[in-house]
């Protein structure tokens, strides 16, 4: 795995969604969300990570903010809006994790983030800004990309049900797609489309089959790293984070195509870190009890 020394001083930022994942069976909640997970994982890997998004004012929001403070992840430009923070409800059924409800981001959806000039100047100080389809930022991507040295985006599985690739991909340097339920061939077609629309690099995670990346010329695959699985929540975000940081550490920049061996090595770093995260409860730990206030 890319060493902490290689990533020390590398400034990266998660932009957008933060939630708590509420494990109803166990009565606990964990901080999460694609953008928040990216910041936490980048910090774990040794990068200088920050987070920018919108918080509510409920107990869930306080727990997320307290966790970021404990992790020394700065949040200087974050918004706070009266109301419910984002949350997703999870049940464990026959050993499998099932999402049963989400408030779709709470106040972050109700009051979409619109960057001002100070935000854009701030984003320009980072080597990479990462966001997602759950961050309600698609209308802002055309403004964000010129301000960012690199802009990455997680489509999750929404590319399968929404017409996202064509309008979003032209604004991206790196895209990640969840494709574990559609198979390798369909994933390859989606990767070709994403790069053809203007995205520099595209990656599809395939669940138990690993992942495949496409640079416009080469398809490169990686298999999962064997591990003792405690919880798969966040594994995809961990894979994406470690892969991108390894690419940046190797010299990847906008407009550059990493050599195939560099991309292959970065995917290997991603697989190793994802296996590590699978051994942690929640996306990255930091459990708090669910109480009556949290469930309102």
UniProtKB/TrEMBL annotation:
GO MF entries: kinase activity
The keyword Ligase belongs to this UniProt entry's keyword annotation: no
Protein name: Sugar/nucleoside kinase (Ribokinase family)
UniProtKB keywords: Kinase, Transferase
Family the entry assigns: Belongs to the carbohydrate kinase PfkB family.
InterPro entries in the cross-refs: PfkB_Carbo_kinase (IPR050306), PfkB_dom (IPR011611), Ribokinase-like (IPR029056)
PANTHER family assigned: FRUCTOSELYSINE 6-KINASE, HEXOKINASE FAMILY MEMBER
């Amino acid at each position: 795995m890319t060493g902490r020394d290689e990533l020390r001083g590398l400034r990266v930022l998660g932009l957008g969604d933060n939630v708590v994942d509420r494990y109803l069976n166990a009565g606990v909640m964990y901080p999460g969300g694609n953008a928040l997970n990216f910041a936490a994982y980048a910090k774990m890997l040794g990068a200088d990570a920050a987070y920018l998004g919108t918080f509510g004012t409920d107990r869930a929001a306080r727990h997320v903010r307290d966790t970021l403070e404990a992790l020394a992840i700065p949040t200087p430009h974050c918004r706070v809006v009266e109301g419910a923070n984002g949350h997703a409800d999870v049940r464990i059924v026959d050993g499998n994790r099932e999402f049963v409800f989400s408030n779709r981001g709470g106040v972050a959806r109700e009051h979409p983030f619109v960057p001002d000039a100070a935000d854009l100047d701030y984003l320009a100080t980072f080597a990479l800004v990462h966001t997602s389809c759950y961050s309600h930022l698609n209308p802002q991507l055309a403004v964000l990309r010129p301000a960012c040295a690199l802009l990455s985006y997680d489509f999750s599985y929404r590319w399968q049900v929404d017409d996202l690739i064509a309008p979003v991909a032209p604004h991206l340097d790196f895209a990640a797609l969840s494709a574990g339920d559609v198979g390798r061939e369909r994933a390859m077609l989606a990767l070709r489309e994403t790069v053809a629309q203007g995205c520099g690099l595209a990656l599809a995670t395939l669940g138990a089959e690993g992942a495949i990346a496409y640079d416009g010329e080469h398809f490169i695959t990686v298999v999962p790293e064997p591990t003792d699985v405690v919880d798969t929540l966040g594994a995809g975000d961990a894979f994406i984070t470690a892969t991108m940081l390894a690419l940046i550490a190797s010299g990847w920049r906008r407009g550059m195509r990493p050599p195939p061996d560099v991309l292959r090595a970065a995917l290997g770093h991603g697989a190793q870190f994802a296996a590590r995260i699978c051994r942690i409860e929640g996306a990255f730990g930091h459990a708090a009890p669910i109480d009556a206030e949290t469930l309102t």
